Amino acid sequence: SEPLIADISENYGLGAVLESSILTVGFEDCNVRVRAETGQFVIKAFGKFRSDSDIERYVDVMQAVTDGGVHHPALHETKNGGVLFKHPSGVSAVAMDFIEGHTYFDTKTVPTDEELALIAAEAVKIHALDIAPPFVFDSWAIPNIHKMHEAALPFLDDEGKQLAEAALQRYDAIDLDQLEKRFIHGDIISTNTLLGKDGKVWIID
Q1: pTM for the whole structure
Q2: Confidence at residue 26, expressed as pLDDT on a 0 to 100 scale
């Protein structure tokens, strides 16, 4: 709501809200583009399904990523310090810079070879972070491929079943104990990769 956005903007010292609109890409949280007196920002209001610990984990990861030099929108501090704001209504939110540009999903394009190199460079920065956030089960994570296969199997045609089986066999052939353990993004896709007008590739979510 407009009063809620105004309250959040006030607590981050962004100034009066001149205009706001919901960013429709992404469905787990509510992302609002805000044009305020001091510039343009994105307010991420976390979904009610997220626990306080999940939200704190999410925010800690975003902070670690930006501190580590990854091209991720900078987070803003509240007037009381810290980057996470809890509104009396129960809504938890963060405010970050709005990056002028477009995602590859928006333009329905694929990265050029040069842009792929920039994306890979950001992934390397993420993988170099020395962080180990608390474990959160993610059904889409690759180590859970067998559970996802079982769930998806009734919806696959014969060709899909063959492709899925081939993927399972290749996954099972990997000696996971021999792999280094690193923090990764895990979802660098068209909706989470933004080409800025500054020529940089920005990684979000």
Answers
A1: 0.83
A2: 66
